[in-house]
Amino acid sequence: MIARRGPVPAAGALDPRAYASLCARWGVPGLEAEVSIRVSARLTRSLGRADIVRGRVTLHPALLDRPDGLLDEVIVHELAHLAAARLNGSRRIRPHGQEWRELMTSAGYTPRATTRVPGWPASPPSPRRRSSWRHTCTACRAWRVAGRPMRRWRCARCLDAGHGGELTIERIR
Ligand SMILES: [Zn+2]
Ligand SMILES: [Zn+2]
Hints:
alpha+beta; Zincin-like; 2 domains
């Protein structure tokens, strides 16, 4: 792999040469070539995982659909764990401690331990996407979603108030 000189582009790099250059800059030249990257839907608690012993980075499949720089950030985040371990040998370091943070900063990222996106669950959408049905109260507009049309549902609030509580049902996905 050809190392490139100059500043490392941070977000959206995803260029093998950028990772080679980054690892060289971190003082672990060639690390990127030893690391295997795989994608696993079994990752549920985070977007990425670094296995220091196996030299492996696992990525959440949902990352591959993200158009922004998050995929790059997660790869750099996990690579930095491997680099920090390599640089510090048998010395014990905290996973997101000073050593790791410095590597992230030099890669152009603000170090953040979690790369979870608000409102974006870490678990992937199920491959067989079920449709959803929205049940909206014709009177108060309150609504509830179910995986199938629930024709017998009524709006509890409106029933209590002495109304019929009828709901309109629409498919939303
Ligand atoms: Zn981490
Ligand atoms: Zn209602």
